[in-house]
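Please go through the sequence line and token line underneath and see whether the fold suits the sequence. See right below:
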Amino acid sequence: MKVVIDTNVLLVCISPRSHAHWLWQSLLSASFELFVTNDVLQEYSEIIGREMGREVAEAAVDLLTDLPNVHLIQKYFLWQLVEADPDDNKFIDCSIAAGAQFLVSEDRHLRIIQSYPYFGVELVSLEEFKKKLLR
């Protein structure tokens, strides 16, 4: 299962006290393949660092880059589908470049991907992803 995870979803799943920690555990146990680009990793680092501290951000990103089920890919085309928040395009671009099945996000700006079914990327919430993962 090829997946891209939005920063806000990744952020809430790191803490063992979080209701969403199951996602982090699933990632660590290689229940799915996570695809990232350099700009996605950079945003992960920036936001996790701001919210949880620089040490946590560095440890999380280092772990991600070491996991065998996390794949760093290159994107060769910028689709520019998200006009309302252009910074969110990195997640759609990564999803398309990876041929991801799922983009896990609660961000309404990323709903635009649903207008382009031929990319094959399904935008799902954290809870929807949990159901798909448990199938």
